[in-house]
Amino acid sequence: MLRVTALMSSVVDLHVKIALQEADREKRRLVVAGVMVGMGLTFVTFAGVVLQLALVLWLHQTFAWSWLHCILAVAGFDLALSGLLLRVGGGMLKGPFLPETLAGLSRTTRALTGRF
Prior knowledge:
Elements: H1 2-63, H2 67-93, H3 99-113
Helix pairs in contact: 1-2
């Protein structure tokens, strides 16, 4: 019986060691992925700023607008686009979340409180 217990303990220890190694690898992978996503978002932000500057320059050269008019036009476009995206995103967030789950919770609550 003692041998079986020692064997089982050894197997469990081996599995725990392997699980800890896998968790360490996963942790490293997730940290590296987070850093890479952060770097990617930084570069996308820089590209957006450069594109905005290029648009201001293009408006100034093409339409001979003043710098202030060009900047206001780009800012107005940005505000309109952000308003549209916020409106669409807000609309998508409305409505029931997990309707079947909410219905089940509602039925259970009514049954428990005695209201049918």
